[in-house]
Amino acid sequence: MPALRNGSVSGDDPADVEGKGSPEGARMTKADIVHAVYNRLGGFSKKEAADLVDLVFETMKETLGRGEKIKISGFGNFVLRDKRQRQGRNPQTGDPILITERRVLSFKASQLLKVALNDEEELGAASLMERSVSRGADALSDRE
User: Fold this and answer.
1) How, if at all, do strands 102-109 and 76-83 pair?
2) pLDDT for 78-107, tens place per residue?
3) Are residues 95 and 137 in the same domain?
4) 3-class DSSP state for residue 27?
5) What is the pTM of this model?
6) Same structural domain for residues 84 and 140?
């Protein structure tokens, strides 16, 4: 896999994908993801690449809809939580209002993703993995 640079995969900066010169304010859309899949994988038509991306998103949506977590190694976790009905206030008037119960989606980035996004080369993935393994070994030796 290509190295991460400034939070994006080398050569696939969202600004580059969208054809904009500045990454400031740039965003990646589903069409940009389809384009990246089409360019990187080859062997797929643009329609097949779009179907593949749609399938991934649909599978994620169905999984979350069943109340299951999505864990993507090296990327992060998506968790759907049910929030109860609660009392709130209208920020403009200060009047009390009832906030209805709802489901909220949260995402927690993995440590590897955080390191990659923050360019913390001294805490690179290999170093992070070594520390995790050594902590596990230390915990086992403490039990003995």
Assistant:
1) antiparallel
2) 999 999 999 999 999 999 999 999 999 999
3) no
4) coil
5) 0.60
6) no
